[in-house]
Amino acid sequence: MTSPSRRAFVTAATASLLVGCGGGDRTGRATAERRESTSPSSRPPAKATRALGRSVPVGLEIPAIGVDTPVMQLGLARDRTVQVPPLTADDVAGWYRHSPTPGQLGPSVLLGHVTVGVHGAGVFRHLTRLRRSDRIVARLENGTAAVFAVDSIRTVAKADFPTDAVYGNVDRPELRLITCGGPRTGEEYRDNVIVFAALSSASP
Q1: CA–CA separation, 119 vs 117, rounded Å?
Q2: Domain span holding position 123
Q3: What global pTM score does this model have?
Q4: pLDDT confidence of residue 105
């Protein structure tokens, strides 16, 4: 049976389309990806790592691409799409608060911008440079660090956003990092870049 909190997450997820950064196509559907590298469905089994208790993320580190950012909380906008962080000079990542916290069972979803308008480059501007097994560290409110290893990176058309792959049930703690990518027209990007990662360890 799905728990009330889990059911709320799934309902919210299927009612909205995550685009990762402001604007873009908000009416797309979950269909096949235009391009992908190492699909999660074909990945080798990962060593089981015990799930963590609930604790809100307050920071995110991705050493391979020089990210060290605070994390804010995001909900749903009025049109039922997932909110994105504001376009500010001190750009930060945002955690979708209707998803599990990093390290809990299920997919924890974090968003960040690739660009922030007149302020220049965004916090997730180099997500496409990540490679399999690169480390992602989520710093949690309780002082724990949840360490994830990258499984795959996909670039998908916003019109073909893979809702089930991003939000669907999984049997281990996982992480999703999402931003915009692909060709740009004005302030709009055609694609989303999605990083899939799995919990590898945790430390105080």
Answers
A1: 5
A2: 4-203
A3: 0.81
A4: 97
